[in-house]
Amino acid sequence: MQPDTAAQAPGRDEPPRKLGAFAARAPWRRLPHPLRWLTVALIGGTFIVVGIALLVLPGPGIAFIVLGLAILATEFVWAETLLHRVKDGGKRGLELTKSIVGSRRKSAATTPDC
């Protein structure tokens, strides 16, 4: 009698794994380190250069820069540190924007109409 293969298949009843777990076992991790390093540097650098160009051209420049940093962060510690700083700055900017918009809505609601 054969064991039930559906019960042993990973991922069927388990919660979805995080992206970091996928990246750790991804096929490109089997490449030799210099080749992987060069590939990540070229792809991530290309995204950052395109993102910088899109800051003055119509397009999502900031998104391309963040995506390039995320790609570079898979191999380089400096990029991971910079990515965390950018994400924290984005969160602080969002909170600041929410507080400014909230205070303007409150002041607009309390002023009488003429």
Question: How would you briefly describe this protein structure?
Answer:
The protein is mostly helical.
Helix content: over 70%
Distance between the termini: 85 Å
Order of helices and strands: HHHHH
> Count of helices?
5
Q: Which structural category fits the helices and strands?
A: mainly alpha
User: What is the total tally of β strands?
Assistant: 0
- Supply Rg: 22 Å
Low-confidence stretches: 1-16
| Shape category | elongated
Q: Determine the mean pLDDT.
A: 79
Q: Report the sheet with the most strands, covering strand number, pairing sense and barrel closure.
A: none
Approximately what portion of the residues adopt beta-strand conformation? Answer: under 5%
Write the topology of this structure.
Layout: H1 5-8, H2 19-24, H3 33-56, H4 61-72, H5 77-110
What does this protein look like?
- The structure is a single chain.
- The chain is mostly helical.
- It has a domain at 31-102.
- Helix content is 70%, strand content 0%.
- It is built from 5 helices and no strands.
- It has helices at 5-8, 19-24, 33-56, 61-72, 77-110.
- It is elongated.
- The model is unreliable at 1-16 (pLDDT under 50).
